[in-house]
Design brief:
Layout (H helix, E strand, L loop, with lengths): L6 H19 L3 H5 L2 H20 L4 H27 L6 H28 L14 H4 L3
Length: about 140
């Protein structure tokens, strides 16, 4: 299985693109280098930390550490988005609502995934079964 099948990675990937585009088109130019230079890396970090954790999934504590850092980066991204909105650098209400909602959903899904890894992580002898999670809980078809 690839990390790209994880729903949390798919949502994070979609958000990276939307947030990057938002920072190029929505805020005033000065925000491109201030808050924009903060929100882009934090959103990319969410996705990258999922990938890095997945690469260490054979080691439960490493896997969890990277997932927790991913959740923290997601919270940081929410904070930057809220700052852009509160300072009226982001004035598109529907875009703000869409991004904020997706970030909140991702945070909940990351939390659920972390809980599942804590409870169900099981190193198995079969090479394709590093840990046991039900596919329908966390994967998309």
């Amino acid at each position: 299985m690839s990390y790209k099948k994880l729903e949390i990675w798919q949502i994070a990937d979609e958000l990276v693109i939307k947030i990057h585009r938002m920072t190029l088109h929505e805020p005033p130019a000065f925000e491109m280098y201030e808050e924009g230079s903060q929100i882009r890396p934090s959103s990319k970090s969410v996705k990258s930390l999922i990938v890095e954790g997945y690469g260490r999934k054979a080691y439960k504590q490493d896997f969890l550490k990277f997932l927790v850092h991913s959740m923290a980066s997601n919270d940081e991204t929410i904070d930057h988005l809220e700052n852009l909105y509160k300072t009226e650098s982001l004035t598109n209400n529907s875009l703000y609502s869409e991004l904020h909602e997706k970030l909140e959903i991702l945070g909940r899904k990351l939390n659920n995934f972390i809980t599942a890894v804590q409870e169900k992580h099981n190193i198995a002898n079969e090479p394709e079964s590093i840990y046991q999670l039900r596919d329908d809980d966390y994967l998309t078809p």
